Prior knowledge:
Layout: H1 2-14, E1 26-29, H2 33-60, H3 63-87, E2 92-95, E3 98-103, E4 107-112, E5 128-130, E6 139-151, E7 155-164, H4 169-181
Parallel strand pairs: 5-7
Antiparallel strand pairs: 1-2, 2-3, 3-4, 4-6, 6-7
Helix pairs in contact: 1-3, 2-3
Keywords: Membrane, Transmembrane, Transmembrane helix
Transmembrane segments: 35-58, 65-84
Amino acid sequence: MIPGALGAIVRHALWPPRRPPSSPDTARFYPAPDMIASAWVFFVLALFESAVLHALGLMLGHSRVLLVLAVLSDAMLVCAIAILRSLGRLPTTIAGDRVTVRVGLLFALDFPAAAVDPAGQVGGDARVLNGALLASPNLVLVFRAPVRATVLGLRRLAVDGIRLKLDRPDEFLARLAAASDNPGAG
């Protein structure tokens, strides 16, 4: 299963899928631009670190160590590019009474809008995904009951909430409230 998921990440980095055509009943919400920009800054730092490690390997003259290091760091960089490019291509959507939260290739959650507790508070031992990555979240969704999340397409886990940084959080909350008031619509 891991090679398939890694293959999907590499395919997404090299040949990203096109955005699906918009339908009038589907609302799309993308991550805030400052969140994506801060993630790219950390990618540039990782690129610099990789270059330093390559230079160290060359200076020490260990060709086998350098080869392994080069393969691992290049694979990490390709995966990082795929994840960063997917942030702007895989939106969070509300269609009818279903909400699909995506944070690029990192997380995916699919749940009915009524599963969100508008007055919910995040407890100390709650399992909350951080979908805002390196930025401060502008909204937190707390669920009435745990929701299954897929992490990197490999692992499923139950979560009590997710922190997000979306481009239009007020509009998202309004559409979420409308969708939870009209179950089965759409």
